[in-house]
Design goal:
This protein is of the alpha/beta class. The protein has helices at about 1-15, 20-25, 45-55, 90-105, 115-120, 125-135, 145-155, 175-190, 210-220, 250-260, 260-270; strands at about 35-40, 60, 80-90, 110-115, 155-160, 195-200, 225, 245. Helix 3 packs parallel to helix 4 and helix 8 runs parallel beside helix 9 (about 210-220).
């Protein structure tokens, strides 16, 4: 019931022009950028439909956009809203579904990987315990290290998502340092590529601290990503870049309204707050 109310409010915000006014105000400050985050992709047709819609209606960009100059209003030539695709945790469906779809649609993504999940791929009991207890979702097959290397070889960027997917804010300093540093080192050792991007597990304000941000910098990261949904602002860099979670089965129209900011307005009404990671 709550989701239907939220969607109805987002539709009203779009129809009455409130979302367009919101985008226009944001665009006076910067080129609009929205970062999306996917997790497991058990349905290839759905993911292809979503990516096809995004490519057709928005400007889907690669992770290199994160290094571009951000300040200043958008130029008249920058009429499209940019969308960056990211992925969290590390699932076998990335290799089977995400990579072929992204290649076919000419898109590249940013893949945040929990190294401990990949370590238990092929060990069903351990993998099931990790997915159900640490990620808090029903079991789905993890990606292998060969799959991680396939992601990197496909021209996508690899980011870290800790080792065991904990709430970092709940850890002692030494534990947090290990989660942040060991995940990065394992990914770099396995892929041979430098890892500079980090996604906080769960990704809300209560899941990381100022000390977490300091430890990211000390470990050699350049950016940290949350799951707090809105357009990306200059003040979000480097450690609080917002992302919008997209879940399987959401209709293209719903994802379109998410990207276009209608649900940001619903959230500001106090009725909605979205985040998972």
């Amino acid at each position: 019931m709550k989701e239907r109310v939220q969607e109805a409010m987002a539709c009203v915000a779009s129809t009455l022009g409130a979302a367009a006014l919101y985008r226009a105000r944001e665009r006076r400050k910067r080129q609009l950028l929205r970062v999306l985050v996917f997790h497991d992709l058990p349905e290839g047709a759905w993911f292809d439909e979503i990516v096809a819609m995004l490519v057709e209606e928005f400007c889907v960009v690669g992770p290199e956009v994160l290094e571009e100059k951000r300040s200043g209003p958008a130029s008249e030539a920058d009429v499209g809203m940019r969308v960056l695709l990211s992925f969290d945790d590390g699932f076998a469906s990335w290799e089977k579904i995400a990579l072929p779809v992204l290649e076919a649609r000419g898109a590249t993504g940013l893949f945040f990987i929990s190294s401990g999940l990949i370590d238990v791929a092929g060990k069903e009991a351990e993998a099931r315990a990790y997915v159900e207890n640490r990620l808090g979702v029903r079991y789905r097959k993890p990606l292998s290290w060969a799959g991680v290397r396939a992601v990197a070889a496909g021209g996508h960027r690899i980011g870290a998502h800790t080792v065991t997917h904990p709430n970092l804010a709940s850890l002692a300093a030494e534990e947090e340092e290990r989660e942040i540093g060991d995940g990065k080192k394992k990914l770099e050792d396995e892929t041979g590529v430098q890892v500079q991007d980090f996604a906080y597990p769960f990704g809300r304000w209560e899941h990381f601290t100022r000390a977490t941000e300091t430890r990211l910098r000390e470990a050699g990261y350049a950016r940290g990503f949350t799951t707090m949904s809105r357009f990306v602002r200059d003040s979000d860099f480097p450690w609080r870049i917002p992302r919008l979670c997209i879940t399987e089965g959401q209709r293209p129209g719903t994802v379109r309204r998410y990207c276009a900011g209608a649900y940001d307005l619903v959230g500001r009404s106090g009725l909605w707050c979205r985040g998972s990671g």
